[in-house]
Here is the input.
Amino acid sequence: MTYCVAVKLDAGMVFASDSRTNAGIDQISCFKKMRSFVEPGDRSVVVLSSGNLSITQKAINLMEQRARQTDRCNLWNAQSMFDVAQLLGECLREARDQDGVFLAQSNVDSGANFIVGGQIKGEPMRLFLVYAEGNFIEASDDTLFFRIGETKYGKPIIDRVIGHDTPLEDAVKCILVSFDSTMRSNLSVGLPIDLVIYRQDTFCLKLHQRITQDDPYFSQISRRWGEGLRGVFASLPNPEWLNDEPGGSS
Amino acid sequence: MTYCVAVKLDAGMVFASDSRTNAGIDQISCFKKMRSFVEPGDRSVVVLSSGNLSITQKAINLMEQRARQTDRCNLWNAQSMFDVAQLLGECLREARDQDGVFLAQSNVDSGANFIVGGQIKGEPMRLFLVYAEGNFIEASDDTLFFRIGETKYGKPIIDRVIGHDTPLEDAVKCILVSFDSTMRSNLSVGLPIDLVIYRQDTFCLKLHQRITQDDPYFSQISRRWGEGLRGVFASLPNPEWLNDEPGGSS
Here is the structure.
């Protein structure tokens, strides 16, 4: 399984991905699920992937191959992030066209998803979710984040905390708490976490952070979050109706 | 969608279910997903259901019909909760046998799940999860709770709080917080919540509570939990590495 999150805020964007890959519970490996493409001063693009690893790797490779064909729209000459999402969707379709039918013969799902976001000079920051069929949607002012993979356990904290004016620092904290909740509830999501921050209009990626098992900050917020939750829980009042139990049956 | 939870603790059991049913987003109704069967002093059985409503209702009705056939194992003469789970699984299979093929012709899923638990004189409390195929598993000392329906959003808090020695009051609070998280993240889970508490060796259900939109206690813990979470979040330190952003790209 996988857990990837990206948020688009007023101040910039945060991208994060776990790195656990499993084909059955006895084949667990570590693969980076984040790729970034930067031309300083001109464009910064980050891609997060989930689903069949051979398909996502092939799609990314096809996109890189196409980047050498300078007579076509490619990663480095695309005029907009929309074109980049379109390109990635096409490469995903091509990868599935090549391999999907063979995977299906062994009942292996060739499904895969991407989150792709960033900024190209002349445009504001944009964030897209590319579906397994190659079509895609864009984040809006109402939907500030996309998640792929094991998306549910980590959603409540993001729902509660993230708004368009959330500072990037708080978004990073929130995303790490969201990973903590996800990893607690689903063992197939695991460390290390790759994390990248993009600040609006900088056209370069300022921070790559890889959060490993021994990361003191992640351990600290994981522990303090757990303690804090239990503290809040303990402070909640008991329901009064528990004290006067009426009988009843149906 | 549905969200149902049942926990088995040293002190007793707590069962809770939402009551929103939807067939498409424009057909949302309110149906109770909890049924209880009590013979005071002898047995208390609670059934929670999720999945295709016509199937779960038919399965329960078949079980009630069979309860009138006193020459066969039925709800009222079963010697063990295992027999009750077996009975419910058989009734579920029968309901799907009758209607499943017709539903499949319209691409409607006849899948359904039950949680069934309680206590029959001569046995300890037991809790079972009945799968859509009619087979079932039993909760153990390691797995104290079962959830069916939209099970993911509400899991983290239960994972963190519930242990076998958790008091019933705390379990009720925890389950309500879990419902609050689920209802925030999935609109197809909704109030009212039906809640029942069973205290060990009482062989009667002491509390039926229906928590509606206006329930002051639920509103209070929902608000205080949200405020508390945001408070804990705000108290978490920022990562130091955010202050010394090294450049980087890949």
